[in-house]
Amino acid sequence: MKSTRSGLTVVEVLVALTIVGVVVAILTTMTLSSVRHDANSGSRTQAVQILNYLGRLASASDALLLGGDREWDYGELQESFRELNTEVNRADPALYRASVEELGSAGIGGGIVVVYRVSVCWRSMSEESCVTGETAGPPPPPPGEESSPPVIN
C-alpha cells in the first residue's frame, strides 16, 4: 500500500534545524570576532597617532618632554597637551597612557643626538595593549636658552 501523504518526517526537520543552527553559530562567531578586531584596530590607530605626536615633540626637544623620563597615566594626556583633541569613542586621549623614556645619547656624523623611546598604551577588552617607537633629536639647549624646533616637512 502506497502512502499518498507528502511532507517531511520529524527526523528530517530536526536534521535541517541542526544544520541551520550550526551555520548561525558560525556566522555569529565570525561577526563578533570582526567587531572586536575593528574596535582594537581603531584604538591602535589612535595610539599610533599619539605616539607620532609625542615622538615629534621629543625629536624637537620640546620643553614638556625634557628632564628625563616622563609618564602620563590614563586621563592625563589632555591636561599636558591641549592640542590633542577630545572626541568621542576611541579618539579620546583620556583612554590612553603614554611614556617618553630618554635612552641616552648617540653620535651621528660628528654630531650628538638624544634617543627617546615613546610608548602609548590603551585598554582593550580585558588586557592592556601598547605601541612603542624610538626617535632621536638634538640635545636639549643649555639652561636659560630656548630651543628652536627643527623644520619638519
User: Which overall shape is indicated by the principal axes computed on the Cα atoms?
Assistant: rod-shaped
Helix coverage percent: 25-40%
Order of the strands making up the biggest sheet? 1-2-3-4
| Overall SS class | alpha+beta
Count the beta strands: 4
Radius of gyration: 27 Å
Tell me the major beta sheet: 4 strands, antiparallel
Content of β-strand: 25-35%
Structure description:
With 153 residues, the chain is α+β, with helices and mostly antiparallel strands. It contains two helices and four strands; from the N terminus they run αβαβββ. The protein has a four-stranded antiparallel beta sheet. The N and C termini lie far apart (90 Å). 16% of the residues are buried. The model has no long low-confidence stretch (mean pLDDT 81).
Which key phrases capture this entry?
four-stranded antiparallel beta sheet; alpha+beta; rod-shaped; 2 helices; 4 strands; 153 residues
Compose a concise summary of this entry.
35% of the residues lie in helices and 27% in strands. The protein has 153 residues and is of the alpha+beta class.
Give the arrangement of secondary structure elements:
Elements: H1 10-59, E1 70-72, H2 77-80, E2 96-108, E3 111-124, E4 127-137
